[in-house]
Write a structure and sequence with these properties.
Layout: E1 39-42, E2 49-61, E3 64-76, E4 82-83, E5 100-102, E6 111-115, E7 129-135, E8 144-150, E9 156-165, E10 174-178, E11 183-188, E12 210-215, E13 227-230, H1 234-238, E14 243-246, E15 249-252, E16 255-258, E17 261-263
Length: 301
Amino acid sequence: MVDNRYALKYKTNAVVHAVRPPVKHAANPLYRGDSGYVNVARNSDTGKFQLWTQIHRFVETAGERKSRYAIANAESDDGLNWNAPNLGLFEWNGSTQNNVVIRGPKNARASGPQLLLTLPEDQKRGYRYIMTYRTGGAGKESDGIRLIGSQDGIHWDANSDTQLKHIHSDTLNSIVYDPRRKRFFMTCRAKDRYRRFKGSLLDTGASRRVSYLTNDNLWTKWEGSPTALLTPDEIDAKQHYNFFYGMPVHYHAGIYWGVLVGLSHERSDPHRIGHQPRRDPLETSPQSNAVDSAWPRKFLG
């Protein structure tokens, strides 16, 4: 931000503020193959870019087709040309010739990776990288949102793997640290009370809303139930933009910045992801004691 409205001497020129949207690279897609929920960071020691992504496959279990998820790694010298190394760490599709780096407890599931880049040093426990991910099918003592650390982004320390919240929040569960309030803030979905069938066909309400949790400590159980933060309104409903899938967040300059992921269920195709509606952006500075009442919303069109 440049402020040239006031000065000791008279100014004959002014600073022009211009916003230019990003342009997709001509070589897209840069990383091909099975990928989703991509995270990228640069290793300050090697100068290389590292990428983590969710991968997926189907398996037949007792005559039933089920999904399996894992987290894979790739690297690049320039951020444009990526190499998926053959790491040989985990079995995937019947072979260890792959770039899988996390399978989760009991190798049941590892999905929705979210790299935490702005943690206080004393919360990193000596690790270079800290990541949240979700697992399921490993038992109540393991399922839900988890936290894990690594020195190189490839070998993740199973001894650090910690369950934060037993909740089926199948999205990007993002955590940031608020230094003013001295607490951690997580966006997730309130799957503790919505879409919990429990063997019944009764629908207990749409869970595709953005909710949040707060906690004073990072590596401990997060208590309480998620609180609603963002829900679709009448503008969204008119365009069948009915669901908010998730919202990764970043904390910078005293403001929470969120990128809202939207989902449109069309009547002709209830599973098609649609375009987000056009609307005016709203960015608000947070109040001193109420994150939920002063959330900066950025609706992308």
